[in-house]
Amino acid sequence: MLKVDNIDVYYGNIQALKGVSLDVEQGEIVTLIGANGAGKSTLLKALSGLLKPKNGDIHYLGGSISGKPAQEIVKAGISHIPEGRRVFANMSVEENLELGAYLRNDKQGIREDIDKVYALFPRLLERRKQLSGTLSGGEQQMLAMGRALMARPKLLLLDEPSMGLAPLLVKTIFEIIVEINRTGTTILLVEQNANMALSIAHRAYVIETGKVVISGTAAELQASDQVKQAYLGGH
Ligand code: ATP
């Protein structure tokens, strides 16, 4: 479904990604783990058109999307939930969800999808009229995920959904990620919480200072001494 082929991404003359290649197959949950500053968010930004690779190519559903405008990439079915879950604070929960469908004009389908989001996140239904800026961190993460789903993505890019959340809520968010995947959405998940990410992923890539250094099935990475030492707290 997605094939990243040897991309280099720069911020000015600082190279943040150095020849990164990876694949995501339809139906998978693939996770990208790595330390702060390794380049994980940069990769998601390149995939969603916010950054343009200097070299290399990105193929999605058979065509190149490298350097295409972000809006075209959303239309093609890739939704990005950035780190820090930026919701529109002065708009209600429901208005945020409606905005997620801004590229669609099928009123009936949009209504049905809002109801699906509420079924997935009952907490948002209770708070549908509440201003988003007053939601808790976990609720804002739910809203950011719900808003991205309103674009009916084929591929969801999730950046650090567990950040700043209490453990119980992290568990809930991860269960919902599995549920979203089960209903047909492919997922590329960036996480610092490698234990949780590997527990739900099919495959994983480890990225260090802009390069992929390890890749394999989630089970292989969970069993790898190198991964255990560096990313799983040595257990
Ligand atoms: P984190 O988990 O801390 O967000 P990350 O793996 O997502 O880490 P990136 O945010 O992709 O890391 O950053 C990769 C490198 O690019 C870092 O060295 C970072 O300082 C640098 N970088 C990121 N954004 C910019 C920017 N706008 N301008 C210059 N350098 C940047």
From TrEMBL:
GO biological process, one term: L-amino acid transport
CDD domains xref list: ABC_TM1139_LivF_branched (cd03224)
Cited Pfam families: ABC_tran
Domain annotation ABC transporter: ranges: 2-234
InterPro entries: AAA+_ATPase, ABC_branched_ATPase_LivF/BraG, ABC_transporter-like_ATP-bd, ABC_transporter-like_CS, BCAA_Transport_ATP-bd_LivF, P-loop_NTPase
Cross-referenced SUPFAM superfamilies: P-loop containing nucleoside triphosphate hydrolases (SSF52540)
Sorted UniProt keywords: Amino-acid transport, ATP-binding, Nucleotide-binding, Transport
Protein origin, superkingdom: Bacteria
GO molecular function, one term: ATP hydrolysis activity
PANTHER family given in the database record: HIGH-AFFINITY BRANCHED-CHAIN AMINO ACID TRANSPORT ATP-BINDING PROTEIN LIVF
Family under the similarity heading: Belongs to the ABC transporter superfamily.
Protein name, entry field: ABC transporter ATP-binding protein
Organism of provenance: Paenibacillus cremeus
